[in-house]
Design a protein that fits this description.
The complex is a heterodimer.
Chain A: H1 6-15, H2 19-24, H3 26-42
Chain B: E1 5-6, H1 17-25, H2 31-49, E2 52-55, H3 57-72, E3 84-88, H4 115-122, E4 126-131, H5 165-173, E5 178-183, H6 189-195, E6 198-201, E7 221-226, H7 229-239, E8 269-272, H8 274-280, H9 285-300, E9 304-307, H10 313-338, H11 345-351, H12 359-382, E10 385-388, H13 401-407, H14 414-419, E11 423-430, E12 436-443, H15 448-462, E13 467-468
Parallel strand pairs in B: 3-4, 3-5, 8-9, 8-10
Antiparallel strand pairs in B: 1-13, 2-4, 5-7, 6-7, 6-11, 10-12, 11-12
Helix pairs in contact in B: 2-3, 5-6, 7-15, 10-12
The chains are: A mainly alpha, B alpha/beta.
């Protein structure tokens, strides 16, 4: 996965509503975006695309 | 090798929960005397250790007087009658604020006990106060928050681990004999490892999370922190059990976790997960030596030890991070949008990555999670218990952010938040610098009794429960 460029990172931050953080703490927003990119790069997809996520949906009463 | 202080039971502040409870039940020890000893210790050491965000000493002493009257009349509330307990400040205690060590929730008064606190009180325990944590249980040792970070009693220039920092520091230093912590990526077991105590992350769903401020719903656990294995089992017996109002609570009754404590290691099959600390994240040589020593000691006690392979730590960590950051963003997103300046720098940086993850990443992580659960279950069909590293390094200095940043992820705890299996961290020895080294045991789901059995065998063989920090 490619690291995010600055414009893309800022667009994602704005889409998430982080305009204030972007204005006041731009380094922290950039560090968070870099962390997300780094962790996504290390996440391997399961070999079988049909694999179910955990926990599975179960019918129930809810809260 | 530094040996620390070899303390017996001459000091009330280092008395075990088990011994103190027996002495109170036998009317040989007054709960007031016990509480006063701890409050004196807190007054002496907490200005250095900063384990407390809020000490509730007056109320604790008043409760100890009630407990004393009840004990005198042979009316014990339960197996923890009159025992002081510290509570991590993301867990609600009625009448006290839950701040999560953050300006965001400063003054956040609560009206009801978390279920785990209510169960401790029902067993007779007395809350002494609310304890330091990393901000919202994720930040790290930070100096830009309303309260200072806790310090390591083995050397106050070093961090005590986190995020249950005050819990680990205070139990190790004898400020209280037991504490509650929470563990989402290792936050009970990290301070247990750094401070040389016993920290348990129970099976997911065994202890109710109701009344605990969440970090990541599917990874959060509440766990007991004590100085001995027996005390840990005793504390777990008090807090475990089904809670129908916690959606993640398992429909299982609390167990008798002390039932196998003294059965020893003979005949147990132990899987040694060597690749965690030898290949995935090569540990400091002293940590590797301590793990080898523990493995051989358990062999000498009659255990059958074999190597076991699991997915790599890098894979476990990636799954843990994607799930944690996605779920944490769902909790903190609104505050991060409107009040980013009210977070400390570390928490702000660690809570915002979820804004950059997609729904597909979260689902992919949970698909991998299912495979990882299957891998650990398969390993635990071959053996009774796993032995592996906890921290790859002893605690570094608290005033070196780059070292904190480098060493914090060097650990083997997150795998068992991902899979939900019970895992216990405890001391494996002391470094040449006089800081605790650690190991970790892992068992099948809901088989905490097995964890306590193997941990007790190691504790008795090594005498780790007799080592206390050279402070005060």
């Amino acid at each position: 996965m490619q690291p995010m460029d600055k414009e893309f990172m800022q667009a994602l931050a704005r889409r998430a509503g982080l305009d204030k953080a972007l204005a006041e703490f731009p380094d922290d927003v950039a560090a968070a975006a870099a962390q997300a990119a780094s962790v996504m790069a290390r996440l391997k997809a399961p070999a079988d695309p049909r694999a179910e996520p955990w926990p599975a949906m179960r019918a129930g009463d809810g809260l | 090798m530094n040996v620390g202080i070899e303390a017996g039971h001459g000091h009330l502040h280092f008395m075990t929960v088990t011994d103190a409870a027996h002495a109170i039940a036998a009317k040989e020890l007054s709960p007031v005397e016990l509480m006063q000893a701890h409050l004196a210790r807190i007054e002496k050491l907490d200005p250095t250790l900063h384990a407390f965000i809020r000490l509730d000493g007056e109320a604790a002493l008043a409760a100890a007087k009630v407990a004393e009257a009840e004990a005198s009349a042979s009316r014990l509330r339960g197996p923890l009658h009159g025992i002081p307990v510290g509570i991590k400040d993301i867990i609600d205690v009625a009448g006290l604020p839950t701040t999560c060590h953050s300006k965001i929730l400063d003054g956040n008064m609560t009206t009801a006990d978390a279920v785990c606190v209510a169960r401790l009180r029902a067993a007779g325990a007395i809350v002494v106060g609310k304890l330091s944590t990393h901000e919202f249980a994720i930040g790290g040792p930070s100096f830009d928050l309303p309260w200072p970070p806790a310090r390591n009693p083995w050397n106050p220039d070093h961090h005590p681990g986190g995020s249950s920092s005050g819990s680990g520091s205070g139990v190790a230093a004898g400020l209280f004999p037991m504490a509650l912590g929470t563990d989402t990526g290792g936050s009970v077991r990290n301070p247990a490892s750094c401070c040389g105590i016993v920290g348990l992350k129970p099976t997911y769903g065994l202890v109710s999370r109701r009344g605990v401020f969440p970090l990541s719903f599917t990874l959060d656990h509440v766990g007991p922190m004590t100085r001995t294995v027996g005390d840990n089992a005793l504390m777990l017996e008090a807090i475990a059990g089904h809670d129908p109002l916690d959606p993640g609570s398992a429909a299982v009754p609390a167990g008798r976790y002390r039932r196998a404590l003294d059965r020893g290691a003979k005949g147990l099959r132990i899987g040694f997960v060597r690749h965690f600390h030898e290949v995935d994240m090569p540990a400091e040589p002293e940590v590797t030596a301590a793990l080898e020593h523990a493995m051989r000691a358990l062999q000498m006690l009659g255990a059958d030890v074999r190597d076991i392979k699991l997915p790599s730590l890098v894979e476990f960590a990636a799954v843990n991070r994607v799930i944690l950051q996605s779920e944490a963003w769902a909790i903190h997103g609104e505050w991060l949008r409107t009040r980013p300046g009210d977070y400390g720098k570390l928490a702000r940086r660690r809570l915002m990555p979820g804004a950059f993850l997609g729904a597909g990443d979260y689902v992919t992580a949970n698909k991998r999670r299912a495979e990882m659960i299957a891998a650990v279950n398969a390993a635990l069909e071959e053996v009774d218990v796993l032995l592996c590293a906890s921290s790859m390094d002893p605690a570094c200095r608290i005033d070196r952010p780059a070292e904190v940043e480098r060493t914090y992820p060097r650990q083997a705890r997150t795998p068992f938040n991902v899979t939900g299996h019970p895992a216990l961290a405890m001391m494996a020895g002391l470094s040449s610098g006089g800081l605790p080294l650690s190991l970790q045991f892992v068992a099948r789901n809901f088989d905490e009794a097995m964890l306590f059995r193997i941990a007790r065998a190691w504790e008795q063989a090594s005498g780790m429960d007799k080592k206390h920090p050279p402070i005060g």
